[in-house]
Amino acid sequence: MTLQCLAQKSALIVVDVQNDFCPGGSLAIQGGGEIVDAVNRVAPRFGYAAATKDWHPAGHVSFASSHPGKKPFDTVLVGGVSQALWPDHCVQGTPGAEFHPRLDSRPFAALIHKGRKAGLDSYSAFFENDGETPTGLGFLLRGLGYGRLFLCGLATDVCVYYSARDALRLGFETYLIEDACRGVSRKSAEEALAGLKNAGVFIVASEEIAP
Ligand code: VGL
Ligand code: ZN
User: Fold this and answer.
1) Which of 21, 80, 202, 204 has the most CB atoms within 10 Å of its CB?
2) What is the mean pLDDT of the chain?
3) Residues near 165 by Cβ (< 8 Å), separated by ≥ 6?
4) Does the C-beta of 189 come closer than 6 Å to ligand 1?
5) Is the CB–ligand 1 distance for residue 181 below 6 Å?
6) Domains detected in the chain
7) What's the 113 CA to ligand 1 centre distance in angstroms?
8) Would you say the pTM of this structure is higher than 0.90?
């Protein structure tokens, strides 16, 4: 079966295509906005599409500004667990938390807001960073009968990576649309892709789904 046919029987998850992760945003990912055309092109081809938003309250534990003396990209221990620190980003209800202005949200049947608890971060679309609090997306997709899903969005090496790991953990056949993702750093994005491929994620191109 071609990927074009497969898409019709699969779910798409569009991860965190928000202004703060695109050039001009507070946690801008190089080329972040460049994925929008590919996402818009593939999304209508799927049987189902869901999007996530990183959606933090002000003063969130992942913000360096919440930890006196710390800078963005430092790490701290929170309750014995390592927490990477970022610039303030995707604060609930702010322009930075909105979708990229050219992202076509019409195909999205569901929207998951994650990272909503002040003291707990959430990279994955499926579980918060305690590894056990579900966002509900896994139940939703399973309940609808989807066993196969495709992932794209921002960032390859953070939220897309953890979403793909959890998708595998939940037993989904998992695909990543490489040109519809960008990483915080090129090197860690390459490592993330290699790690996912090794773990059983199929890496594909948007052209194969929507030529
Ligand atoms: C993300 C860093 C912090 C992401 C979210 O969406 O990849 N990265 N919060
Ligand atoms: Zn975040």
Assistant:
1) 21
2) 97
3) 124, 196, 199
4) no
5) no
6) 3-57+96-208 (3.40.50.850)
7) 13
8) yes
